[in-house]
Design goal:
The protein has helices spanning 48-66, 93-101, 105-122, 138-152, 179-183, 224-236, 253-264, 304-309, 314-323, 334-351, 365-379, 384-396, 402-416, 439-454, 458-470; strands at residues 13-16, 21-24, 32-37, 70-77, 130-133, 153-156, 159-162, 197-202, 220-222, 240-246, 278-284, 287-288, 330-331, 473-475, 485-487. It is α/β, with parallel strands linked by helices. The strands form five sheets. A five-stranded parallel beta sheet has the order 5-4-3-10-11. The protein is globular. The structure holds adenosine monophosphate and zinc ion. The site of adenosine monophosphate has 15 residues, from helix 1 and strand 10.
């Protein structure tokens, strides 16, 4: 493919949650970008809100690749240590799921990890360089904890706790001391400060956990925050470039990671970004569902499989994410998804004529201008909403060299990940699982109808159309999209 870059690339500017400012991306290691994304706790399916976090991280990674950096992206799989409540109390999510489903915690983890990766594949999220699985790193976690235990931690009957007053500027990332934070002190007996958190949780006397290890503080399991600090350090070295996660992690999980990293690396001031472990901390805002289906405790919750069962191609959801800025809330609705799918279909259709063209070097100034604007939009803290309008503009361009157009679309799509030149338009049709659609029959009837029309046998043509309508198929003659048929109502 003819990769094209503009003559003067725009500087990449990203919003750093730690400083609450847009900053120039300056890699720690020249030419490289090292990114760590907090991954799922695999005790259940991920909902579509969770998937927004990975579409965001993937778009960031693709943009870094587009800007010429050699990307090393890590996503972790949390298979131990994440408690039901962020207040360090209650059961481990994994152990609880195992007990309620009558399976081992390891089987639960394996099952939901596979489901999660399938969803990522459906959304066109690229595989990271490495999936780090928390239980593979427990000895390293113990070593990390040993190094900070004497100076920053204290031991209680329930475990080893990090004393947040031992590091400067605890909670700078969160900015506000929340009521929730204040309430946390009640949850664990003996905690010195509301925000202190577990580094190691001891298995209560007389109990056995499915996932537990020996440590200097007794048999037990690592704390969730410790896991991410250790895996980031192990795989990327510290400091690395960018740490990502959903905006909820800005409040507790990431401030705690930062405190641990500060402690581990000699307790420096956060004025020097190096001491937080990552130079930039980036957070995607939430996907909101006013129907209340986003909560995993609500029984049937909104996950990608439900969108697919209702007939939507998963890339329509990726596009929905890209239409909003990652730092804005995004409201989910089926109407919104429908409109987005129509937009995606249009885009795919306008791009289709250059599918078979061989990509060539881009010389046409209209194209290089649009590519420069695209670069500027993505470099402006990942402005995907504007970038989408630019890819649409290129796709709709007439009287332009097909090879050059192909080349620019390839480059843009490598960043947006919508598979514009490979997804088949048939696959973008809404196909609800509940509907039985005999596609071959529909195609055959349409073909007969076309023949009848060409033979000017309008009586037959109309009768065939009536048959299709009776079967719930809307025939779309003359529609600008050129989609020959669709299910009535979609
Ligand atoms: P969890 O499995 O709960 O650790 O969440 C996985 C990722 O999804 C984390 O980065 C969360 O911050 C993120 N996340 C959770 N809920 C939402 C939501 N409604 N919208 C966007 N991101 C979310
Ligand atoms: Zn994490």
């Amino acid at each position: 493919m003819g990769a094209v870059m503009t003559d003067v690339p725009a500087p990449l500017r990203l919003f750093n949650s730690l400083t609450r400012q847009l900053e120039d991306f300056q890699p720690v290691h020249a030419g490289e970008a090292r990114v760590y994304s907090c991954g799922p706790t695999v005790y259940n399916y991920q909902h579509v809100g969770n998937m927004r976090a990975y579409v965001f991280a993937d778009t960031l990674g693709r943009t870094l690749s587009f800007k010429g950096y050699k990307l090393r992206h890590i996503i972790n799989i949390t298979d131990v240590g994440h408690l039901i409540s962020d207040a360090d109390a209650g059961d481990d999510k994994m152990e609880k799921a195992a007990a309620s489903q009558g399976k081992s915690a390891w089987d639960i983890a394996a099952f939901y990890t596979t489901e999660f990766k399938r969803d990522l594949g459906w959304l066109g999220v690229r595989d990271p360089a490495k999936w780090t699985v928390a239980t593979d790193y427990v000895p390293r976690m113990i070593e990390f904890a040993k190094r900070i235990a004497d100076t920053h931690c204290y031991e209680l009957d329930s475990g080893l706790y990090f004393d947040v007053s031992t590091v400067a500027d605890y909670g700078r990332l969160a900015r506000a001391v929340t009521d929730e934070g204040e309430a946390r002190i009640e949850e664990v007996e003996g905690k010195r400060h509301a925000a202190d958190f577990a580094i190691w949780r001891k298995t209560p006397p007389g109990e056995t956990r499915q996932m537990e290890w020996d440590s200097p503080w007794g048999r037990g399991a690592p704390g969730w925050h410790l896991e991410c600090s250790v895996m980031g350090e192990a795989e990327l070295g510290m400091p690395f470039d960018i740490h990502t996660g959903g905006i909820d992690h800005r409040e507790i999980h990431h401030p705690n990671e930062i405190a641990q990293n500060q402690a581990y690396h000699g307790c420096g001031s956060l004025d020097c970004a190096e001491h937080s472990g990552a130079r930039m901390w980036m957070h995607n805002n939430f996907l909101i569902d006013r129907g209340g289906k986003m909560s995993k405790s609500s029984g049937e919750f909104l996950r990608l499989q439900l969108l697919v069962d209702r007939g939507y191609h998963p890339l329509a959801y990726r596009m929905m994410c890209l239409q909003a800025h990652y730092r804005s809330e995004l409201e989910f609705s089926w109407e919104g998804l429908n409109a987005t799918l129509t937009r995606l279909k249009r885009l795919v259709m306008t791009a289709t004529p250059v599918r078979d063209a061989a990509a060539t070097e881009v010389a046409d100034h209209r194209l290089t201008d649009l590519l420069a604007k695209f670069d500027a939009a993505m470099s402006d803290d990942l402005n995907t909403a504007v970038a989408l309008t630019l890819v649409e503009e290129v796709a709709a361009m007439k009287k332009v060299d097909a090879g050059q157009k192909r080349s620019v679309l390839d480059t843009m799509d490598a960043v947006l990940g919508l598979q514009l030149l490979t997804v088949s338009r048939e696959n973008l049709r809404v196909r609800p699982k509940a509907a039985t659609i005999a596609e071959d029959d529909i195609e055959a009837t349409l073909k007969r109808r076309k023949d009848a029309r060409e033979a000017k046998d309008f009586a037959t043509s109309d009768a065939l159309r009536d048959d299709l309508v009776a079967a719930g198929i809307e025939v779309m003659d003359g529609d600008a999209l050129g989609w020959e048929w669709r299910l009535d109502g979609f």
